[in-house]
Amino acid sequence: MDVSFRGRIAAMVLLGLLSSPVCAGEVRVAVASNFSAPMERIAALFQKESGHVLTVNLGSSGKFYSQIKGGAPFDVLLAADEAIPKKLVQEGLADGASRFSYAVGRLALWSAQPGFVDDKGLVLNKGNFEKLAIADPKLAPYGVAAKETLEKLVMWNAMQRKLVKGENITQTYQFVATENAELGFIALSQIMHDGKVSHGSWWLVPSEMHKPIKQGAVLLTAAKDKAASQAFLTFLKNKQAAAIMRGFGYELP
Amino acid sequence: MIESGLAPSDLQAIWLTLKLASVTTFLLLLIATPLAWWLAHSRRWYKGIVSALVALPLVLPPTVLGFYLLLLMGPQGAVGELTKALNLGTLPFTFAGLVVGSVLFSLPFAVQPIQNAFESLGKRPLEVAATLRANAWDRFVSVALPLARPGFLTATILAFAHTVGEFGVVLMLGGNIDGETRVLSVAIYSHVEAMEYAPAHLLAGGMVLFSFVVLLGLYLASGKSWQVRK
Question: In chain A, what residues touch B73 (CB-CB under 8 Å)?
Fold first, then answer.
């Protein structure tokens, strides 16, 4: 209460100062697409409270890796896994000391049709569907988690004929949302807002079914000395950001 | 596999791409020829509307076009309802779905060169043929079609090449299924995204080389045919 009040005062003061370009920095963040919804709110809050300007670039972590290698002007990467931030650190493109996992994603089996997916995922055994959408396990961490889950259920081989693969988790969601696939494994954050799922039917895949989807953040070497970028990474660890992430179904590491 | 560097699924993607481009080009020539003839000769007030509709795929970003097709051809879309009623199932994630998407996407590339060729003929050759008592069908087949050959050649090349290089529509509609919808451009993209640069370079390099050779061959052949006619 007290904190947020003080925060609001600080925001007002900062807003007043915004007109002077000296204190307002710019942060360019490359964000994995599964994190787009919470990022929108976190970005709004961060801009309000810090006075810095934040630009968000949505895409897949693999694409960002190639772009960063090619000199893309990003300051911070919020990836969908930990492998890519690690790789960037190894190659000297990111600052190792800044790397941390900012969220743990949850996988959900979702259908746009109400009552289609039961809360234990038994619909997979019933098999009364033509297409099951997953993100491509070669490209997306949520695809890897979906594959691990199906393997644990001893269904991976049997499902091959029904699988359609999205290039990323957003596309996978579209396949299911347009009902071209009756159901699909997607990120919980895509259907959960403020702790509630608004439509369709879903099964929250228990976290022991797959390796945890730890999502890594890292400061890129080019932005190492930028105060605004560091401020954003610090902001990502605070309580307000955590509350937003939880509302979208993320767990905290 | 180490020598070639290509997985069987990559070879399948190459074959599938050639199949998709051939089927699409064939269908496009069937559709575009009467459409171009009509556009070249019609004086109807709605000709402008049809021309604009034909050119529309040039404007929309391919992934957006793909997304709308996904909606339209899905179980909730108008086309999806129709195909379901005809017991054909729904089109997304099938080869037939890719063909529909590719035909729409490459339509202007086939129609416009043929239309230009028909328009540049003028009325004269057809009128002369008419005085020789050739009926409308005769005039079209024996006069207009042969004279418009360069236009057809350009349309064939463009439609084929454009389909080989097509990406956004296929990505949105395909679902990346081996042997069904995983075409070359999607395979290359997946390799790049997964940081498997060696097969990506190989496929991309092969695609560039193949396309260059095909295009060069066609242009050389068309150059020759023009010379012969003169």
Answer: 180
Query: Which CATH homologous superfamily contains domain A2-104+212-247?
Result: Periplasmic binding protein-like II (3.40.190.10)
Contacting B with CB below 8 Å, chain A residues are 60, 62-63, 65-66, 130-131, 133, 136, 138-139, 163-167, 171, 174-175, 178-181
**What range defines the domain where residue B34 resides?**
8-225
How confident is the model at residue B225, as a pLDDT?
55
Select from A60, A174, A181 the Cβ nearest to the Cβ of B67: A174
Q: A178 contacts in B (CB within 8 Å)?
A: 70-71, 74, 76-77
Could you tell me the pTM of the whole model? 0.81
Separation between Cα atoms, residue B159 and residue B180, nearest integer Å: 21
Report the C-alpha gap between B67 and B127 in whole angstroms.
Answer: 47
CA angle (A214, A217, A218) in 5-degree steps = 140
Instruction: Give the nearest chain A residue to B173 (CA atoms).
Output: A175
Q: Spell out the domain ranges in chain A.
A: 2-104+212-247, 107-204
What's the number of domains chain B is made of? 1
Tokens of A58: 């949505």
Domains A2-104+212-247 and A107-204 share a fold: yes
Say which CATH number the domain at B166 has: 1.10.3720.10
What residues form DSSP beta bridges with A103?
A215
Q: Given the DSSP bridges, would you call strands A94-105 and A213-220 parallel, antiparallel or unpaired?
A: antiparallel
Architecture of domain A107-204: 3-Layer(aba) Sandwich (3.40)
Cα of B172 to nearest chain A Cα, Å: 7
Of the candidates A65, A136, A180, the beta carbon closest to that of B74 is on A180
| Helix residue ranges, H only, A18-69 | 36-50, 61-69
User: Is B3 part of a structural domain of the chain?
Assistant: no
Summarize pLDDT for B140-184 with one digit per residue, the tens. 888 889 999 989 998 999 999 999 989 999 988 988 888 889 999
ipTM over 0.85: no
- A64 min Cα distance to partner chain B (Å): 9
